[in-house]
Design goal:
The radius of gyration is 23 Å and the shape is globular. By secondary structure, the protein is mainly alpha-helical. It is built from 24 helices and no strands.
């Protein structure tokens, strides 16, 4: 419908092409929040704000969460629920994560030919979907124990995106060298549409298995997740001690997670189990043969350089030669300098994927700042500290898990480990209790948080990536597919905390 007046233009421009009901809902939130702050107070309004922000994340395919979530965060600052200074402090505290997103994800972009080459070989060699899924989950877990989960997720996204573009281009009647926009299906031939839907389901399941794998591996080691390092510093644990203390919980959960992966693929429950269509396999096989035939000595040299950059990446991250973001920037320099990528516009493409999510993450820190300033989690912490023995450890595990489902798990871990350390210093708990609670906090923030994209940065990164809309991976579908993992892994973790940790 044509826009005839200036007022209609403002209405039309607000949140762009989002549905009218979504625009009205966001406006309703923005109008209701000031009223609620005055009537029910900032504490309850803070909890409602969290729900509103989760709604924005859930509607990521209707409207990217940066704009509606950003409006809510700005309003929270204006209403005095937090301050610009606190938002800045939260952002500064998480600056290593921001650097990781800006540079590491872009670094992975310049290794995509090597990654696509490697994973294409794996995809074509492993015919069993259950084995392939187990492989994706296990490799993601192993890598995430030594690398950052976001880095591993970026790798898998790059690979899946490459697979999708190859098939979508051919299904649209084009050749490998043609330019192609894969965001729409208008050019896809009718014969390929059912195969395309099945291929999307195939990639969705692989991506979810890999995402869960990052959580399985991330909980195990000191470097697996940012909160692990934070907890280890407060507790005074080194790498080996951290692994040993957490192992009674992390190892059973690892095996349960891998078992769940196998079960889901064999039963085809919860949207899993889709096989790679034979037509798609043939196209990818032809593509691999075509790439092999067309590969020049210069192309081989590029793969060698990317391979050496990947080896440096693993070595540098494993031995913590520098902050993760700095290592990512180093990979960018090495992979571009020795592969002849010197034009500014070619460099710019690498940052397109990460920067929108980086902006969204800063908005998320604004919501976290509200949680901090309004002490939204304090009543839960005080209640749990009043419990005794194994009940206290289990309650810490569950409380951290539930809160990490709706908030940033790094923030939850920070709040809890600080309170527990204060309790230790005040003589309210013993050193042995402190160590057990530290393990409960670590496992609680890592394992149950797979329930929603809010809890795991890797999940949120996947949800807001360019790949998610292509393979029809929405917030709701992500929660549904993660549900069996949430139930089995969280239960295994709770049993281990109860019976194996003490």
């Amino acid at each position: 419908m044509a826009v005839r007046t200036l007022s209609q233009a403002f209405v039309s421009n607000f949140l762009g092409h989002s549905p009218a009901w979504f625009k009205l809902t966001i406006l309703g939130f923005l109008i209701a929040n000031p009223i609620l702050v005055v009537t029910v107070g900032p504490f309850l309004t803070g909890w409602l704000l969290i729900i509103e922000f989760i709604f924005c994340l859930a509607m990521a395919l209707k409207c990217y969460p940066l704009q509606p979530g950003g409006l809510l965060a700005i309003e929270a600052v204006i209403l005095g629920m937090t301050s610009a200074e606190t938002v800045y402090e939260e952002t500064l505290h998480n600056f290593p994560v921001i650097m990781l997103l800006m540079f590491m994800v872009a670094g992975i972009y310049f290794l995509k030919e090597l990654l696509l080459f490697t994973f294409t070989k794996i995809l074509l060699k492993v015919k069993s979907k259950a084995m392939l899924s187990m492989l994706f989950c296990a490799v993601a877990a192993f890598l995430s124990a030594f690398l950052d989960a976001l880095t591993v997720t970026a790798v898998v996204i790059t690979v899946a995106h490459g697979f999708y573009l190859v098939y979508h281009k051919i299904a649209s009647g084009k050749h490998y060298h043609h330019e192609h926009d894969a965001s729409g299906d208008d050019e896809v031939h009718e014969l390929h549409r059912s195969d395309l839907d099945q291929f999307r389901a195939f990639l969705r399941s692989l991506m979810m298995h890999a995402a869960v794998g990052t959580a399985l591996g991330g909980v195990c080691t000191l470097v697996g997740e940012p909160q692990n390092l934070l907890i280890a510093k407060v507790a005074g644990w080194e790498f080996v001690e951290f692994f040993v203390r957490v192992a009674p919980v992390s190892m059973p959960v690892l095996f349960v997670g891998l078992g769940t992966c196998w079960l889901l693929e064999t039963t085809r429950w919860f949207g899993f189990g889709a096989r790679l269509p034979q037509v798609v396999r043939e196209i990818l096989t032809d593509y691999d043969a075509h790439e092999t035939k067309q590969r020049t000595q210069q192309d081989i040299a590029k793969l060698v350089v990317q391979g050496l950059a990947a080896v440096f990446l693993v070595f540098a991250l494993g031995f913590h030669l520098a902050e993760v973001g700095v290592i990512g920037l180093t990979v960018i320099v090495l992979a571009t300098a020795f592969n002849g990528i010197t034009e500014e516009h070619r460099l710019g493409h690498a940052f397109e994927e990460a920067l929108p999510f980086t902006s969204l993450l800063v908005v998320f820190f604004g919501i976290v700042a509200v949680i901090h300033d309004q002490h939204l989690f304090t009543p839960v912490i005080e209640w749990v500290l009043e419990l005794d023995g194994a009940l206290q450890t289990s309650a810490f595990y569950l409380a951290n898990g539930v809160l990490s489902m709706i908030s940033d798990n790094v923030f939850v871990a920070t709040v809890y480990i600080t309170e527990v350390k204060n309790a230790l210093d005040a003589g309210r708990i013993t050193l042995e209790q402190f160590n057990l609670l530290a393990v409960a906090i670590n496992t609680g923030t890592n394992i149950p948080s797979v329930a929603t994209p809010n809890g795991q940065a890797a999940f949120l990164f996947l949800l807001t990536s360019a790949l998610a809309p292509l393979i029809r991976l929405s917030y709701g579908r992500m929660v549904w597919m993660a549900l069996p993992y949430t139930l089995t892994m969280s239960s295994a973790g709770l049993i281990a905390v109860n019976f194996l940790l003490h």
